[in-house]
Amino acid sequence: MDSRWSMETLLIHAGNDVVTAGPHHPTALPLYTSTSFQVESPELLDQVMSGKVAGYSYARHGNPTVAAFVAAMMRLEEAETGIATGSGMAAIDAAFYACDLGPSDLLLLSRDLYGASLNLASTVWGNTGIRVLTADFCDLDALQEILEAQHPKALLLEMISNPLLKVVDFPRLIEMAEKAGTQVIVDNTFTTPLMVQPLVLGADLVVHSATKYIGGHGDAMGGVVVGKDRYHDRLHQYLKLRGSVLGPFEAWLLHRGLKTLSVRFERQSANALELAGNLLHSGHFDKVYYPLLPNHPTSAIARQLFGTIGGAIVTMELKGGKDAAYSFIKRLKLVGSATTLGDVYTLCLYPVIASHRNQTPEERALMGITEGTVRIAVGLEDPEDLTQDILNAVQ
Q1: Which 3 state secondary structure label does DSSP give 347?
Q2: N or C: less crowded end of the chain, CB within 10 Å?
């Protein structure tokens, strides 16, 4: 694959050359549904299963369709190794495993993470003896004190936080983490490789909920972990032992989704910017959050990192708290209500009962999530239609 090709070209072609059929190369990725693969001799099977020879033996160890999808994600993120998992949460779990966390190690989390990510770290990994600490990653002075004093084994952050869309000064964070010997895991779901490639900026591992923008059509669930070569063995061991593999049909759908990611995501982001501006100037909301809006507290670093693309999420704070939020969601006609994002259609989520339902009111308050916070994942509809639907629902 030509290293000079642009991201838009790579989205179309990356991974296509992994599966071949002799001299006849398929133009569309073939779907391999077999759970096992016959090998011509036990000697060769031994080499395949040991990893000495490339090949396939059992679907938990590898599948050609899944391998093509992983190869595409590795190329897009400029990674040296990677795996695909059955969900985005499994991808985060695999990243923690890849970091070789053990008893008494400290895992440092951004306070502003997706609620389930926080729960996974505290309830699953925390019960193994690993220490879990959350901090405000936007407060770099306080973060530096933690890194210098406690030297966490790994840290996890989202490139754009869920749901208040905060952006960390990532170059400075990487510099501080390197000095502390801390491995950096980045959830790049909200940004995609189109906005930023965290590995290029110094991250160690990147995770995606491929269910979201990568798939883009709300019909396939999956996750991705890609990173530096030193994580290869533990990532693949995770799949073999935990078994959270991505199915071939889901891999086929997600790989197909990559081919339209550029046109979808750029349009969704443009729609989101226009919608955010419209809602901000309407005066109907206590706050409107979008990374590129001048009123967002981290807009300067967002523009530095992402340029003119700010992602496809807009978050608002309704006047009137929970009752207002419930009424608003019920009055929406064009905008749907579902606990996901990244699809071609626009969806509304209420964090208090969905993404952050397992956080206490006090924890949500520390994040800045109020009883009136709602998140809009912007799709491909006309932004004027979306504006009118939202304003009609709030009046």
Answers
A1: strand
A2: C
Name the catalytic one among 212, 264, 364, 375. Answer: 212
Q: What are the residues whose beta carbons fall under 8 Å from the beta carbon of 150, sequence distance 6 or more? A: 106, 108, 133
Point out the catalytic residue in the list 60, 303, 322, 357.
60
Q: How far is residue 164's CA from residue 304's CA, in Å, rounded to a whole number?
A: 18
Q: State whether CATH 3.40.720.10 applies to domain 262-394.
A: no
Residue 23 in this model has a pLDDT that exceeds 80: no
DSSP bridge partners of 313: 377
On whether the CB atoms of residues 250 and 85 are closer than 8 A, the answer is: no
Percent of the chain surpassing pLDDT 70: 98
Residue 99: per-residue pLDDT:
98
Candidates 112, 187, 343, 389; catalytic one:
187
Active-site pick, 114, 213, 238, 290: 114
Closest CA to 227 of 137, 52, 100, 99: 99
Q: How confident is the model at residue 237 (pLDDT cuts 50, 70, 90)?
A: very high
- Give the pLDDT confidence of 57-93 residue by residue, as tens digits: 999 999 999 999 999 999 999 999 999 999 999 999 9
187 is catalytic: yes
Q: Where are the domains of the chain?
A: 7-258, 262-394
Nearest to 207 by CA among 92, 104, 113: 92
60 carries an active-site annotation = yes
pTM of the model: 0.95
Q: Which CATH architecture has domain 7-258?
A: 3-Layer(aba) Sandwich (3.40)
Q: What is the pLDDT at residue 355?
A: 95
Nearest to 227 by CA among 271, 194, 184: 184
Q: Decide if 373 contacts 163 (C-beta within 8 A).
A: yes
pLDDT in tens, 338-353: 999 999 999 999 999 9
Q: Is the pLDDT of residue 21 over 60?
A: no
CB-based contacts of 212, cutoff 8 Å, min separation 6: 88, 189, 190, 340, 341, 342, 343
> Which CA distances in Å does 345 have to 6, 156, 312?
27, 29, 11
**SS3 at position 170:** helix
* Side-chain half-sphere exposure of 349, counting CA atoms within 13 A: 23
